[in-house]
């Protein structure tokens, strides 16, 4: 079983790759048969190829990501983060709470992101 420090470090690396990595870099943190549900209640994506395709939407965007808090226990980490993207003259911000489970190898086995469309904030990046 992973330690709390290992879980916390894995979450921090995930957030770092959201900001500075490619879809493949992020998906490499997942086990081959992992699941991703973002947001919770939406289609569950299973397997690294489907997960890579999901994160491909971030490729080419200006992304900043900040880990706000993390709690970890057993094989699970829950964390609150802020993700801001800039594209097409708009800045979009969201602060989901994600819940991840991990295998003994430190790879993500499941991820559920808790947020709804009302949690997204859009604004122009330059004054109109």
Give an account of the 3D structure:
- This protein has about 130 residues and is of the alpha+beta class.
- The chain has one domain: Nuclear Transport Factor 2, Chain: A, CATH 3.10.450.50.
- It has three helices and eight strands.
- Strands 1, 2, 3, 4, 5, 6, 7 and 8 form an eight-stranded mixed beta sheet that branches.
- A hairpin with a 5-residue loop joins β6 and β7.
- The longest helix has 17 residues.
- GO terms for molecular function: steroid Delta-isomerase activity.
- It is an enzyme of class 5 (isomerase).
Morphology? globular
Oligomer: single chain
CATH architecture: Roll
Rounded mean pLDDT score: 95
Helix content: 10-25%
Beta percentage is 35-45%
Question: What's the CATH C level?
Answer: Alpha Beta
The total tally of domains equals: 1
Largest sheet: 8 strands, mixed
Order of helical and strand elements: HHEEHEEEEEE
Uncertain regions: pLDDT < 50 for 5+ in a row?
Answer: none
Topology:
Blueprint: H1 4-20, H2 23-27, E1 30-37, E2 45-46, H3 48-55, E3 62-73, E4 76-87, E5 90-94, E6 97-102, E7 108-114, E8 121-124
Parallel strand pairs: 1-7
Antiparallel strand pairs: 1-2, 3-4, 4-5, 4-6, 5-8, 6-7
Domain SnoaL-like: 11-110
Pfam families: SnoaL_2 (PF12680)
Enzyme class: isomerase
Descriptive tags:
single chain, 128 residues, alpha+beta, Nuclear Transport Factor 2, Chain: A, eight-stranded mixed β-sheet, 3 helices, 8 strands, 23% helix
Short structural description:
This protein has helices at 4-20, 23-27, 48-55; strands at 30-37, 45-46, 62-73, 76-87, 90-94, 97-102, 108-114, 121-124.
């Amino acid at each position: 079983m992973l330690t709390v420090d290992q879980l916390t470090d894995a979450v921090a690396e995930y957030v770092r790759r959201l900001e500075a990595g490619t879809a493949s870099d992020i998906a490499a943190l997942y086990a081959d048969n992992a699941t991703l549900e973002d947001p919770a209640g939406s289609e569950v994506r299973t397997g690294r190829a489907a997960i890579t395709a999901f994160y491909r939407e971030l490729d080419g965007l200006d992304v900043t990501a900040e880990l706000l808090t993390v709690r970890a226990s057993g094989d699970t980490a829950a964390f609150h983060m802020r993700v801001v993207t800039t594209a097409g003259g708009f800045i979009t911000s969201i602060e989901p709470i994600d819940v991840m489970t991990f295998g003994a190898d430190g790879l993500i086995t499941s991820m559920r992101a808790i947020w709804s469309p009302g949690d997204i904030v859009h604004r122009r990046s330059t004054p109109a």
